[in-house]
Amino acid sequence: MDHTKAERAEGLGGRIRTLRIRRGLKQQDLASAEASTSYISLIESGKRVPSSPVLATIAEKLGTSPEYLLTGIDDHRAEEYRLKLAFAEMALRNGDNGEALQSFGELLSNRSALDGSMIRRALIGQAAALEKTGRLEAAISVLDDLHRDPAIAVGSDEWCRIAVALCRCYRDAGDIALSIDIGERAVAQLDGLGLETTMDHIQLGVTLMGSYHTRGDLTRAQLLGERLLPAAETQGSHGARGAVYWNAGLVAGSQGRLSEAIALTERALAMMAEGDNARHAAMLRMNYGSMLLQLDPPHPERALELLESAQEALAEVGSASELSRCELNLANAEKQLGHWDAAAAHAERALGLLGADSRVLSALARTYLAEIHLLRNSPDEAVQHLHSAARQLRQQPASHDAAQTWRHIGDLWRQGGEQDEALKAYDMALTAAGLARTRAPEAALIDRR
């Protein structure tokens, strides 16, 4: 018997003995055809754990419930815990992330009063609240433990939610390689069940597409999208179809096919509008606004409308990372409109939302602030932000986002007349994009001698 089972048996046996004595009963009074008097003695001493039928018989003779004997919590208190868990989950859905985090923490501080299912629900909720408040490393720690829990069956709803969240959190924390590894293994495990492509496949697939996109592996992202789209159409879920079109739009945008990207995003928005996922709809509006800013010529006025609408929704239901991305897009829109104070305010808000786990986004926020300071003719402040951005990016693995930010930094150094710094940033952009440095010609000549 392992340590956890021993503790449970000891507590169970003690409660049976206490109630038996309190009611003036002897051990033989609890005996039955399934449990002898000696077996009751072993249960009370913590040396045996009764089966469910035996426990039910003992509970009936003691005038209590099996749940109380197992947990020490009466039915009234157990219902209180169930209501508290439902309240915490509702707070999370409503965007009250701090309140939800506190409620989940209080529940988990009394684990002995919860059954396994309630503990897992509370842990999944706690991880989601940590993610939404920008505490990615803490969320990953909880999700990693859940992902290894043998009690969670592969292919179950719980398992899928955990795999999707873990893939997404590692991606947002900058560990793209591990995010992709988790996503690919999860998809392979689902495939191994021999099922047709399900909603779980689609949820995992679109998250994996996002990780491919972040790494800059656009071909693989596009191929995965082409596999998922027919399945999403078959499933008939507006949300599933919208999610695939959404990610396909991101890939097309990164490949420079902006007209196609906008068309795909508009289609995804139309599908999401028929559902009730406010967070996904807000993120789509954010992506749409971002694409309008990349057009030639850009459309900052229309982009600003979309982004302000997305910001309002994400402030309630989005994560810190998602809201900060929206703030950065708003900074870009205001900058293009010549509203430098408003642009700086949005970039500062983005920086304030981000914790130590989101270095790429923090670097991007500082790059926007550097650009605004250059436009204001404040080169000293711009230089400080550029150096800070570079320091943060150097701590991050290669990714598409990192390469884009390095390119932005290089362009700003070049505009400021700092050619050497610009070349360093461009070199880092190439490395982040996956292009290794070539060997110097003199080194090759030395090898030939």
Automatic annotation (TrEMBL):
Q: Which domain of life is it from?
A: Bacteria
The portions of this protein that span the membrane are: none
- Cross-referenced PROSITE patterns, in alphabetical order? HTH_CROC1
Cite a single Pfam family from the UniProt record. Answer: HTH_19
Key words, A-Z: DNA-binding
Q: Where is the HTH cro/C1-type domain?
A: 16-69
The UniProt entry, under SMART domains, shows: HTH_XRE, TPR
Write the protein's name.
Answer: Helix-turn-helix domain-containing protein
State the organism of origin.
Streptomyces andamanensis
